[in-house]
Structure formats: C-alpha cells, structure tokens
From TrEMBL:
Signal peptide coordinates: 1-30
Domain BIG2 positions: 971-1043, 1044-1122, 1124-1197
InterPro entries, per database record: Big_2 (IPR003343), Invasin/intimin_cell_adhesion (IPR008964), PBP-Tp47_A (IPR029221), PBP-Tp47_dom_C (IPR029218), PBP_Tp47_domC_sf (IPR038698), SbsC_Big-like (IPR054604), Tp47_mid_C_dom (IPR038031), Tp47_N_sf (IPR036154)
Keyword Nucleotidyltransferase in annotation: no
Stated name of the protein: BIG2 domain-containing protein
Ranges of Acidic residues composition bias in the record: 38-92
Pfam families per the UniProt record, alphabetical: Big-like, Big_2, PBP-Tp47_a, PBP-Tp47_c
C-alpha cells in the first residue's frame, strides 16, 4: 500500500517529469493519474526508475478511483499518527526511513516545477477556467490574443464587474474584491479575491523577466503574474489552486467536490430577477456555502451548457437563493439593473446541476431538475376586469368575473388554483368557485359555507403545453357595495357607516383586508411586513378602537404622547380608502400654545431675579432703556426690530395718537398683519398713516403649555392661546431668515412644554420640560447643526458687557429663537458648580441679523448682576430655546478681552465720514432690499454717533464695518422693458414685460389715451392714428415705450386705367394692405362695359367707363377704368419713289400693338415687317397695313 501522504507531496514532481518526457498535456495526464496505480520497485534508489504507469493501470484508475487532492489531505490527516507509529513496510517506508524524500529534498522538488501565490482575479478570467476545458500550457505567449476577450466574457453584461447601489451588502462577500465610488457611494465588485494560483516555474521566471524588460502583452499573463502576492514554493495547504497558462488563461480550480441531495425549486415571478432558484439546505447545514467562502455558482443545463452566477446580481447574502435575468432592463427593488446577457440562454432550458464554487473547501454539487419556463413578452398575460366587481355573497347567484387572455400562440393555460384569505378555495358548483374555460368567466359563490368574501383573490394559471411559458398570477378584487356600507375614522375609532342597517360586513372584515397603513404619511411595516397582523395591533377587531400603545418592530406607532394627533390613511382590499385624524387624549389636560410675558416664562427656570419686572431709568451705551428686570422691552424707532420681533415675540406698536397695533406677522415688507387678522401699512416711521411713537416687546407668543381641562376656560380668558390644528405664523423673510407658517400640534412630549397650574391669583408655570416632538404638525423636532460659535471682543456696541455670535447655518434657529439662558461657572472648567444663571429678553439681549448671524449678549442690568468678586471671565454655558427645535447648548471661556470696558475717547471722524458717504447715495439707484439694509446700518451708526461718549473704539469700528458691508452690498436697480418702440394699427395690441431685480407691482400709464391705452398688465392697445408714450414705473424707477398708431387701410391700383375692346382687353388691380387682413373682393359697376374676376382681372366688353369696387373686410376703394375702341391711322396714305429708293410707313395706333404690312405687287415694291417700303421697278403697288383689327391702304408709285 503506497504512502498516500508522501504521494501527495511528490505528485507535482512526477506530473511535471512525465509531461516533459511524453509531451502529454498535464491536465490530461493528471486525469489519468492516481496514487492507487503507482507500481514502485521496493529496491529503487531514485524516483524516476521507481515509477511505472501502464495502460492497464490507467484504465483501472478511470473506472475504479476518484481521489482528489483534498480527499488525500483528509485521509492524510486521519492516518498520520498511524503511519508514524507503524512498522509495516511499503514502497517508500516511513518518513523516517526515506532519506531521499526529506523535507529539504521535497522543497527542492517543488521549486523546480511550480511557484504558488495569490491574486485578485476578475470574474471573466475566473469563470473562463471553470466553464471551459482549459489545458495547461507553460510556454509564454505574449503576442497571443486573449481567449477570455475572444469569447466575449469581458463584454458588458457577461462576466464583467458588478456595480451595486446596495454598498453595505455588497461589501459582505468576503471572497470578492471591490472598489468604491466616492461620489455616489456605490460599490463595484471586480472579481474573486486572493485566488490561489500555481505558475510553472519556468513560465514564472520568463514572465518576471518580461515585466522587468517592460514588454507588452496581448493577454492577462503579465498582469496576473505581476500581481501575485504571498509567493511561495509551497503549495497551498488546502491543495486548491488554478494554474496560470502561457496565454494568460487560468485552468479550473484543482479541488474536490461534494454532492448534496437537497430540495431545490424555481419561480419565474420574483422581484429580484426573471427567475429565482431556491436551494433548501435546511437549518445549520455545515455544507451550505456562506458569504465567507462562496466564490461563485455554475448552472449546468440538460444540453451541457454552463452559466456562471456573480455576487450581488445573482448570488445573495442568503446563499440558498439565486436570481437571474434573461430579459434586458430588469430592475430589482434596490434599483440595480440585473444583467441578462450571460444568462439569457437559460430561458426554456432545464437546470440539471448547480455547483457552488467554495474557497478552500469542496465544491458543493446539487443535482436538480429545474425548468426555466419561457417568459411572457411585455403586454402578454391574463387580466381581470378594470371595472369594479361587487361581491354578491350568494349561494345560488355567484359573483361573475370576466378574464381577458393575451397569451402566446400555442400555449395552453389552465386555471390551477384560487386563493383567498390565505386559503386555497375548492372548485365546484357547491363549493367556492367554478371556471368556464370557453368563456373565461370565474364564478365565485357565497353563502354560509363558502370560504369567500370581499377582498383579493389570487388566481394561478399554468401552461400545459410541451414548451411551457411561465405561470400567470392574476389578482382579482371583489368589492363591497359602497352605496350600502363604507368605513371611516370617527372619535378615535374605525367605524362602519351603514345607512341601510346591513350587518353583512363589520369592522373586523375591514381590518382583515387592510393592505396598507400610513400614520402621518409614513407607511407602517416594511416590504415584507404582515400588514394584516399590524392592522390587528393598531385597531381592536371588535370595536375598531385605536390602540395608542401599538408597536411595530418594537417601535411605538403613536409616540407623541398625550395630546398628540395623527393623520391615518388606510387602504383595504375591496373596501373604501379611509382617512382621518386620531388624537391621543386622556382628557385630563389640554395642550396649547400660550403667549407669556418675560417674567411668566422665566419664573421657574432658575434664573437671576426671574420675577423682577422693574424698569430702570438708566440708559445703556445705545441710549436704550434695557437695564431693568423682566419688564417690557421698549424701542423708540420703527426700523429697529419690527420685522425680527414678529418671529417669536409679542410686540405692540403705538402711534403718536395713542392708538396701539398688536403685531402678529407680515404680509409683505410694508404690510403688517395684526393679531386680529387685520392688516395695516407700516413703513419708514409711519403706521396706518400716523407717526410711530414706540413699540414694546412684552414676551413670547408661542410657548407650549399643558393645563388641566377643568381650568382651561379660565386659562383662555387670561392668555392668548393657539389650539392644536390652528395656525402659527410670524417673521419676515430676508436673506438667511425665513418667515414661517405652521399648524399647532402640542402634546405631552413637546419640547419646552410648561405646565400651567391654577392658583387663587391666576396661573403659575413650571420649568420647561425636555421633549421629543416639535409641537408642529408634520414636523420632526429639529436639531441645529452647522453653527459656528464666535466670541466677540468686549465692545459693548449694543449695550452688552459680554457677547457671543452664532454664524454659519444659523438661519433656521434664528427664526425659531425664543429665549436664551446663560449659566456662569466662574473658574470651574468642569462645568459642575454653577455660580448663577441669567434669563434674557429679545431685542434687549438677543438678536438675529439677516446675514451677520445670531447675536447673543448679556446686559449689565437688574436681571443680570455678576456674583461678588467675579468679573465675567471664566466658563459659561449658553442654551438657546427655539420653536420646534431641540435645545441648542454650547460652552465657551470668556477672557478679559471679551468683557466690555468703560468707554474711552473714541475717534468719531471715521464714523462721520462713512455716514456722509452713505447719505450721498440715491435711493432710486438701488433695490429696496439692499437699500433698507443700508438704512438700518446707517441708523445704527447715527445712534452710535449721537452717544459717542459712551462708545468704545472697537464698537465704532465694528459698526463702521457693518455699514461698509451694506454699502458694498448695494444692488443697482435694474428696470427695462422688452421693447422700446413699435408701430401698431388701431385695434391691435402688444403686451410689454419688464426685466427687473426689483419687487412690487408695476404701474403703467399712457401719455395719450386717445392714441393708445395700457392696462395693469402692460397690454398696450392702439386706438387712433398718432404717437403716444407708455411709461412703466416700479417704485422710483421707470422705463418708456413709444407707440406709433396707424389706421388700417388698403390701396388698390390698376396696372392700366385704360383698356380696349380689342388687343389690350384686360388689366389687373393690385391691392396693398396696410394693417388689414383678409382676402380682397372685386365688383364691377357695369358688367356690360367690363367684368372683374375674383383675382382682380378686369376684362373689357364695350367702350365706356366703369368703377371697380375693391373691398377687404370693412375697407373699400374704387378704381376707375375706361374702356375704348382701338384706333389706327397712317401719317400719309401714299408715296412716289424712284427705283431703289425707300420710304417708311408711319402708323399711329391705340393701343399700341402688332402691325402687319403686305405689298400687293412685290415686283414693284416690297415692304418689311417694320413698314419700310423699297421701290423695285416702275409701276404701282398697294401696301396693306393692319393693326388692332383695322386695315389701311398705302399707295406706292415707282417712277
């Protein structure tokens, strides 16, 4: 018995030597070689003389043995202990006795024949060796064409790379290597990773030399040889490798196979391909390939053809499922297009074997009998009726459903099953259904014993022809009669609306048939979810009541908490679609928005002097009264803050007459919306025509509050409230700030919710509660991101002693900002022990600029006094509260540089200069928005100049920078019309349009409405002949359009006003239209004198005069025509000539026409066509002259 362990080790040596001696291809030789058939001389001293292979042995090998490399390894591992300890002798003895086959000698033998390594191999090269009979060839062939390319394996859709948008899944195939697209995140699987490669040593050396010499190669040889890694003279431990050939091809993998007899199936209806194969490996089958070792799959069909399957497109993470396409353009649910080119040939064939190519293990072979039924063409199939079919639920009168066939010729489709409600129905007149093949009518029976009802039926048709097409699945919906019963959401329940009192259907029937549930627009469950079970968890089957504790995938369906409202949309097979609102309401509390004053808001927030509402007579550096407690913020100017104050605060404007206006928002730049819904104009220091005296900011208008239902009526009388479902709005959109309009939806989980508690004196409010919902319908709680914190040097420009700006993506938080809390930790850099917290007020402390960011400050005031022995330097934490936002908190360290210092001797000259520069500009030259920015910054500069003694140099420089930016950002006003002039005919119109960067309505005016008018849309209408100027104006700019108006007319003129009864008998009247459209008509006043055709051709009849009337539309003109008889006369009637002399006959004719001349005796005198008479001999001749039908005689006497 030969030592199999040693045999395995020397096999490559023997194989190589035999190839060299016989010239036999090594692959063919290897197939004939078996360690069972080696005959060794017991006394041999070298391997060449010890080995003899006979034809008889080879034959025995073919019939009796099937030992693979991996089989030998396994047997080797199992018997090694026995071999090492036995004293039995065989041809080689034990390893200890075989000095000629020591480890060192073994290594030398391998190095002389093969070099081993690993390389990433593209799919095309990998599958080529597996699917074709590739013989070994060790001769380097640099000029040989690439066989893999020649057979089309590299073509797109064959065995090329696979690009997938499901990048995370695609990365989970451990046997493939990939590249990532950084732009769109897609992953491209390139091929098989770290494939074991064996290269004949001579070929390897030749290839290395060729690479070093920079030689080119027409195939993959140098590329693969040059990419080898982990190069070794030792074969892989697994015994698995492909051999690299001299033409760059790779052989099939040297490995073993293992056959598994497991169930498999195929379907021609899958979302993942035209076909899907399922292999039932069972649970925890150790032979099932995994994503860690599956290199590919090969299908072999009954005709011997092979088809490779690639990762991601065909092979899934669930390795027992394989999908493929045979038609172009198949797109699976992840939006990946499945290539069909490499598998198109499978259509109509039977798959008889599936081989899983397993890395470092036995390939798994599964015998199958899977028919890939032919696919139907687009548009082919069987369909149900388009119209609604009402289920009758009658035992004797079935519901009839007409089917329509459009199937291939030669097919023979039969109805094989009908399913409803998860059950297969029984066929027969006294069962559930019958089907008439001739009429294609399905009859569904009802009644007590039938398993039928309203909903979706699934009909399966199977083709029984010899070359069958795919099964056809037809969904049929039988509906309830919605004139008798419908369903609706009412009072947090799904209810039946049954005007006739029928009890045929109940809520449970609707719930059973629900196919989709949306809550606030989001569908419950995933693609594979059991919607019926989800429906039963959301609704009580008996009562229809909503279960507000329902969960899907362990997530709460209704997560807003008490007071939360949800939009429900239900789709049910056979029943009406239901939409409605449900509200999670315990009834104990009402959830609303309320307007709170500054002290009411801050009272329970743990800030300094929270309830102190005292004012202060002191002025800050801007001369403003911001140094009090939580009293109202008062402003004396109209331009400062009315737009910004409308976002989140309660603001009231007072005019000089004492009238007040409560601001809610802005309709446009100059139109203020009041809290009562009315609008007033407000611009440039005037409101509703009166001068503005001042405005106050008293608090915040939209604070989420919960109050006991029993106290709600009293609460509404004390506070302005917005109930759920009502509108919240505010702000004015400019640059980075956007106005908003939302719908209130406050619930127990709304962020910032305060609890209102009724007391003998009114109501008190709790501290804000952190929540997870926004309080805005349809809006998730937002998180501010992309914001940059910017510490400011201590300028005190706006009266503050400490300031931080938030820039970057600040616009959303700026428009939502309600209040800001500052907490001072002094020297505690761990932020553990707060020294004091401070509340703030909008306009007095907080501000948002339309492009400079959110500006947060602390004012030295009644509401903000630093603790004893501190100066404001150290560690601070700031939290911004915003409507619909999570609390935004940041921390910073303030240094001495950040604390505002006492005012010094600031230089006012630069401030005066830039103020003068700004005032020299003309408002009409710029757009209103950019001009308003300038005006606001100019006002800030003038306020600062008026209080120059209280300013710091840094503060002045900062404000100068703001004004300079406003000047540089001015946008030139553009306003021009699409036309500057035109000529119109009366009654015609043209519409002018303006190109402008201005906003507002254009006004139009005509300089002469008797010539041309213009309407509000710029349409100019010509009235009468003349010239007018149209002026378009927008704000302080204008443009003009000059219009010349002509009255429409026609001009008619004949080619000739005189015609004759003979010769020139016609003339044409030509008509020129000026501003007139239509065809001309012609009419003769005397047809006996002349007629006129439809084309204006006048034809003479007899002498006389006639008027031809030409008309186009309402425009007429008369053309006078004279008809004359023709005339003709000779200037003299005779002439005497001497022989040889000439004379010309002169003719006068009207009209001028052709004249003919004829001599009565050409021997005496001749005459030319031009009337030239020539004397020939003595005698007399008569020349006959004819013209216009008149004949005259001319006598010639020759002497």
């Amino acid at each position: 018995m030969a030592n199999k362990n040693l045999l395995k080790k020397i096999a490559p040596v023997i194989l190589s030597a035999t190839v060299a001696m016989t010239g036999m291809p090594s692959a063919a030789f290897a197939a004939e070689f078996s360690d069972e058939d080696m005959i060794l001389n017991e006394n041999a001293e070298d391997e060449e003389s010890d080995v003899e292979i006979t034809d008889e042995d080879a034959a025995a090998d073919n019939t009796d043995t099937d030992v693979t490399v991996e089989d030998a390894e396994e047997e080797d591992a199992e018997t090694v202990d026995e071999e090492e300890n036995t004293e039995a002798e065989d041809a080689f003895g034990t390893e200890a006795d075989a000095g000629a086959f020591s480890a060192e000698d073994e290594a030398d033998a391998v190095s002389g024949d093969f070099v081993y390594g690993t390389a990433n191999i593209p799919y095309a090269d990998f599958f080529y060796g597996e699917m074709n009979d590739v013989a070994q060839n060790a001769t380097m062939q640099l000029d040989a064409a690439d066989p893999v390319t020649a057979v089309g394996y590299r073509d797109e859709g064959m065995y090329d790379a696979v690009t997938s948008c499901t990048n995370n899944k695609s990365k989970r195939y451990d046997t493939s290597y990939y590249t990532e697209n950084t732009e769109n995140g897609s992953v491209t699987l390139e091929g098989i990773k770290a494939v074991n490669i064996a290269v004949p040593a001579s070929l390897y050396n030749d290839a290395k030399k060729a690479i070093e010499e920079g030689k080119s190669c027409s195939n993959q040889l140098l590329k693969i040889a040059g990419s080898l890694e982990n190069v070794s003279e030792t074969a892989p431990a697994s015994g698995e490798y492909k051999i690299l050939n001299g033409d760059g091809t790779l052989t099939a993998m040297t490995t073993e196979t293992k056959e598994l007899n497991v169930e498999s199936s195929i379907t021609a209806s899958s979302p993942w391909g035209n076909y899907q194969v399922s292999v039932e490996f069972g649970n925890n089958n150790p032979d099932q390939p995994t994503t860690a070792n599956m290199m590919g799959v090969i299908f072999e069909t009954s005709d011997g053809e092979k088809y490779g399957m690639e990762h991601s497109q065909n092979l899934w993470l669930r390795t027992g499922e394989i999908a493929f396409a045979v038609k172009d353009g198949f797109v699976e649910p992840h939006k990946n297009t499945i290539d069909s080119k490499r598998s198109a040939g499978l259509e109509g064939k039977t798959i008889t074997k599936i081989t899983y190519l397993v890395k470092d293990g036995a390939d798994i072979v599964i015998p199958t009998n899977l028919l890939c039924k032919y696919k139907l063409a687009d548009g082919q199939g069987i369909t149900g009726p388009e119209e609604k079919v009402v289920y009758t639920n009658n035992t004797f009168t079935p519901t009839k459903v007409q089917l329509t066939y459009n199937v291939p010729e030669g097919s023979s489709y039969k109805l094989t099953s009908v399913e409803y409600g998860g059950q297969v129905l029984s066929e027969g007149s006294y069962n559930d259904y019958t089907y008439d093949d001739s009429t294609k009518v399905l009859s569904v029976y009802g009644g007590v014993f039938a398993k039928t009802g309203v909903g979706t039926y699934t009909l399966t048709f199977t083709d029984s022809s010899a070359a069958p097409y795919e099964d056809i699945t037809v969904p049929i919906v039988l509906s309830a009669d919605d004139t008798k019963v419908t369903f609706a959401i009412q009072n947090n329940k799904l209810v039946k609306v049954d005007p006739n009192g029928s009890t045929t259907y109940e809520v449970k029937d609707y719930i059973k048939n629900i196919t989709a549930i949306k809550v606030d627009g989001q569908a419950l469950g995933g693609r594979k979810a059991n919607i019926s079970e989800i429906a039963k968890s959301v609704f009580n089957e008996s009562t229809g009541a909503v279960n507000f504790d329902a969960k899907v995938n362990n997530a709460a369906v209704f997560a807003k908490g008490d007071g939360g409202s949800y939009e429900i949309e239900l789709t049910a097979s056979g029943f009406n679609t239901v939409t409605g609102t449900v509200t999670q309401d315990s009834g104990e509390y009402k959830y609303v928005y309320a307007g709170l004053t500054w002290d009411q808001f801050w009272a329970s927030e743990g800030v300094y002097e929270a309830t102190n509402t005292s004012a202060s007579e002191d002025k800050d550096r801007r001369g403003e009264s911001d140094m009090g407690g939580f009293d109202a913020v008062t402003r004396a100017t109209a331009n400062h803050g009315l737009h910004r104050g409308s976002f989140q605060t309660m603001a009231t404007v007072y005019d000089v007459n004492g009238k007040s206006y409560e601001l809610a928002g802005w309709k446009d730049k100059t139109t203020m919306i009041l809290t009562d819904g009315n609008t007033v104009s407000c611009s440039k220091g005037k409101i509703n025509g009166a001068d503005v005296a001042e405005y106050t900011v008293t608090g915040l208008k939209y604070i989420p509050v919960k109050v006991k239902t029993a106290d709600y009526d009293a609460f509404k009388k004390a506070f302005k409230v917005v109930e759920n479902g009502e509108k919240l709005f505010g702000g004015y959109a400019e640059n980075n700030l956007s106005a908003y309009e939302e719908t209130a939806e406050v619930n127990a989980n709304t962020n910032g919710l305060k609890t209102a508690t009724k007391t003998a004196d009114g109501f008190t409010f709790s501290a804000r509660a952190n929540g997870t919902t926004s309080g805005l319908k349809g809006e998730a709680l937002k998180t501010a991101d992309g914001i940059t914190t910017k510490m400011k040097p201590g300028s005190g420009s706006y009266g503050e002693f400490l300031r931080v700006d938030l820039t970057g993506n600040y616009g959303g938080l700026g428009g939502a900002m309600q209040a800001v809390k500052w907490t001072y930790y002094g020297d505690d850099d761990t932020y553990s022990n707060a020294l004091q917290s401070y509340g703030t007020k909008f306009a007095a402390d907080n501000w948002m600029h339309k492009f400079h960011g959110i500006q947060l400050g602390l004012t030295d005031s009644v509401r903000c006094k630093l603790p004893a022995d501190t100066d404001g330097t150290g560690y601070w934490e700031v939290t911004v509260y915003g409507l619909g936002y999570s609390d935004y908190t940041f921390r910073f360290q303030a240094t001495d540089e950040n604390i505002a210092k006492s005012a010094g001797d600031a230089d006012s000259t630069p401030l005066k200069n830039i103020i003068a520069e700004a005032k020299a500009l003309k408002e009409a030259d710029y757009t209103p928005d950019s001009w308003d920015t300038l005006v606001n910054e100019l006002e800030e500069c003038e306020d600062m100049l008026a209080n120059i003694a209280n300013q710091t140099q840094y503060g002045i420089e900062e404000q100068i920078g703001h004004l300079r930016e406003a000047i540089d950002s001015l946008v030139k006003a553009e306003f021009k019309l699409n036309q500057t002039s035109a000529t119109l005919y009366s009654g015609a119109a043209v519409t002018l349009s303006a190109t402008t960067n201005l906003t507002g309505d254009i006004t139009w005016k005509s300089s002469d409405a008797k010539v041309a008018t213009v309407d509000a849309k710029g349409t100019v209408t010509a009235v009468n002949a003349g010239r007018a100027t149209i002026t378009a104006a927008l704000g302080k700019v204008s443009a003009t359009f000059t219009v010349t108006v002509k009255n429409p007319s026609i001009t008619a003129k004949a080619d000739s006003s005189v015609i004759y009864t003979k010769s020139k008998t016609t003339t044409k009247i030509n008509v020129a239209k000026d501003g007139v459209t239509g065809n001309a008509t012609f009419r003769s006043s005397n047809k006996k004198v002349a007629t006129v055709s439809a084309n204006g051709i006048v034809k003479a009849k007899k002498a006389g005069k006639v008027n031809i009337t030409v008309q186009v539309g309402n425009h007429k003109q008369v053309v006078k025509i004279t008809v004359k008889k023709p005339t003709m006369k000779l200037t003299k009637a005779s002439a005497k000539l001497k022989k040889g002399k000439k004379v010309t006959i002169k003719v006068k004719a009207a009209p001028v026409s052709k004249v003919t001349f004829k001599s009565s005796n050409k021997k005496v005198a001749t005459v030319s066509s031009k009337g030239v008479v020539k004397a020939k001999k003595k005698g007399t001749a008569t020349i006959t002259v004819k013209c216009n039908g008149i004949t005259k005689k001319f006598k010639v006497t020759v002497k």
